[in-house]
Structure formats: C-alpha cells, structure tokens
Design a protein that fits this description.
Layout: E1 2-8, H1 15-28, E2 33-38, H2 45-48, H3 58-62, H4 68-71, E3 72-74, E4 80-83, H5 97-108, E5 114-121, H6 125-131, E6 138-141, H7 145-166, H8 172-181, H9 184-189, H10 192-202, H11 204-216, E7 220-226, H12 233-246, E8 251-257, H13 260-267, H14 272-275, H15 280-294, H16 313-323, H17 325-337, H18 343-380
Parallel strand pairs: 1-5, 1-6, 2-4, 2-5, 6-7, 7-8
Antiparallel strand pairs: 3-4
Helix pairs in contact: 1-15, 6-7, 7-11, 7-12, 10-11
C-alpha cells in the first residue's frame, strides 16, 4: 500500500480539492483507494466528494463511540472508500500520543493500493508525524508569497521532526540538538546540510542513519491556483531552495491552473473530475494520478518508528518557530537566496510583517492603559 499524506503549510491552497479528486482518479484507474479526512477540528472533506456527514468518524473512534472498522464507508465512486473526520469534538487538533499512535497503527493495517490522508494545515506535531508515515507525501502550495513561505517552513519542520525521531535521547547528536533547542531561533535558522555536518562529527553512527532516511525522503509538490504560466517557474525555485537549505530533493508532480469549474462543481456537491472531466483542472489531476501510479512505492527502514515518543518539547519549538517574526524572516532570507521570492514579493511580505507588528503594539498599548486604569480604580477603593 502506498500511503500518500497530503499537507500544506497554509490553509486555503486546495489541499482537500487535490486529495478528493486524486482518490477518485486512482479509483477510476482500477486502484483500491481509501481517503481519510485528517484535518481534525475542521473536517469538511465529505463536502468536496458530495457525501453526507457520517455518523462515525475519527472523532467518534477516538472517544470510544465507534470501532475503527465502522469508519470505513463506501462512496458513490468506484473503488473509493472514505474515513470521515469530526469537526465537532473538541481537542482533536492536538491528539495525545497514545491516541495518535493508535490511529497510526490502524492506518498501517488498512488494505488498499493507495491510502490518501488529507491533513490539516500547519506544523502541529500530529500533522508532522502523519506526513512522515510515508517518504512520498504531497505538499500543496500556491504561487503567493505566504503560501510558498509556509510550504517551505512545513518541510523544514518535517526534517527537524525526522531528526528528533532518529537521534534518541541520550545520544551525542540529541544532546547537541537539545542545547541548540534552548535558542529555537538559532536552531531554525541553521541550514540542514550544515547542521548534519556538525552532527556527523559528534555522532557519526546515528547521523549516518539520519542521512540514509533523509535520502529516502522524497516529498512531492503540487502547485495549485496558478493564473499565469510563468508562475510554474516557482516550483523549480522551491525545489532548488529545498536542495540547498534542507538537503532534500522534492519531486514536482505538476501544476493546477485556477479553474472556475471547481466552484461550480463544489456548489453542485460533485468532485470536479466528475462534474467536468474534460476541464483543465480535471485533466491536470489525471496527469498527477498517472505520475503517482507510475512511481515506485518507497518506505523508510523498518527501524524507523514514528510512534516512539520523541521529545515533546519539539512541538513547542516547531510551534514557536512557525509564529515567531524573526524566524519567519530567516526563511525569507533562505528563499530569497535562490530566487524563489522576487524583490517585489519580499517588499510585500515585509510590509505585511510591519503592519502586523504595528497592530500588536497598538493592542499591547491598549491593554497597558486598561491595566493601569484598573489598578488606579482598585487603589482608590
């Protein structure tokens, strides 16, 4: 079974669109496919494939209200089964380790040719581990500066997560990473190839294992919402950035042009390749499906177990890195170095960051005034 996690660093780039239509395209080709909605807390994949909300979903399974076998439901599409999520049960976006590991173990027992997981956006630990169920996950992004930046940030955090899963607590490499983690900005700013070279000197045996796993890691890229053919060049620049700064080689699966048919299909509660199979968007998805069917299934080594409890502090480092202004600017510097971002886009991003900082300062000043006023009133009483 080829596991295909589909992720994005940023919401609203068409991740669910690709997941749903790709599953149907593979099913039409005679492949047995299971499609799962892992966008926990915001599950709506059933709407994209025109299904009614399921009574049993991942949420009901995690809360003990249904068995895992109850989750796998047939669809109206040939060879495609569906596992619903659950957006109404609180806490699903931050699964406890035992719940996450249970889900992973259940997923690995599924019987299918392809298992497609529609993951949530962002760099939460659960999302990173689900993406690492396979070396061949798909990252969906768009040509906008924020989408590219967040897609790159996502991949960098995936590589860091792989490090923490490889270098066990107590090893020389782990100790060095732990010392760097105390300054999360410095850790996140360090290029992966440079970091690996340092780790190789400190812990050659474990670093050799990590390098082997990194070499097997071949995430795939889909560039969505393309309006101008020249935007397709972004994929080449993103790949160059990943090679230079992350030490990984990504495969370019293709581009999806923006197509008005998608909105009409969604309104009709039909996947676009069913609503209009000859549309530009549908044909692009069929080409992506064909490339996947022609690809060899790659797996990590048997010793690589993502259900082991890597240092939970990594989650905090990843979340902080995703939100921190200075760290985000470090990613901008990296992408600018290979031309993935133009001068105009850099200016736009800096303006956005300055606006955000100004807004935060104003909110902070307002809160200070309220606190001072409240303290004065309390003193008078």
């Amino acid at each position: 079974m080829q596991i295909i996690p589909v992720a994005s660093g940023k919401g609203g780039v068409g991740k669910s669109l690709l997941s749903a239509n790709l599953a149907i395209a593979l099913g039409q080709a005679g492949k047995k496919v299971i499609l799962a909605d892992l966008d926990l807390g915001a599950s709506n994949l059933h709407l994209v494939i025109g299904q009614t909300a399921a009574k049993a979903g991942i949420g009901t399974y995690l809360t003990g209200q249904s068995s895992f076998s109850d989750l796998i439901q047939p669809t109206d599409y040939e060879n495609v089964s569906f596992i619903a999520g659950d957006s109404e049960i609180p806490g699903l976006t931050s699964l406890k380790t035992n719940k996450k590991n249970d889900l992973i173990n259940q997923f690995c027992k599924l019987d299918a040719d392809y298992f497609i997981l529609d993951l949530g956006a962002g760099t939460h630990l659960t999302i990173l581990d689900m993406f690492l169920l396979s070396p061949q996950g798909i990252v969906v992004t768009a040509p906008t500066v924020t989408a590219i930046l967040n897609g790159y940030l996502f991949l960098k955090n995936v590589v860091f997560r792989m490090m923490y899963n490889t270098f066990k607590k107590g090893s020389p490499a782990y100790s060095y990473l732990d010392s760097l983690r105390k300054d999360s900005e410095s850790l996140q700013r360090m290029y992966i190839p440079k970091l690996v070279a340092i780790l190789e000197e400190k812990d050659p045996k474990n670093t050799a294992l990590f390098k082997m796993r990194l070499e097997k890691f071949h995430p795939r890229l889909v560039l969505n919402m393309v309006d101008d053919p020249t935007d397709a060049d972004r994929a080449i620049k993103i790949r160059r950035s990943c090679q230079q700064y992350l030490g990984i080689d990504i495969e370019h699966l293709g581009i999806l042009f923006r197509d008005a048919m998608q909105d009409k299909a969604l309104t009709s509660r039909l996947p676009v390749i069913i609503y209009k199979p000859q549309s530009v968007l549908s044909q692009a998805i069929y080409r992506v499906a064909e490339k996947i069917m022609q690809s060899e299934t790659i797996v990590f080594d048997d010793a690589y177990d993502i259900t082991t409890n890597a240092d939970a502090s990594f989650e905090n480092a990843a979340e902080e890195a995703a939100a921190d202004f200075h760290t985000r600017m470090a990613y901008v510097e990296e992408l600018a170095g290979t031309g993935a971002l133009s001068v105009g886009e850099l200016s736009e991003l800096i303006a956005q960051q300055q606006f955000e900082l100004t807004r935060l300062r104003n909110e902070n000043n307002l809160l200070k005034k309220k606190l001072v006023k409240a303290a004065q009133q309390g003193f008078k009483v």
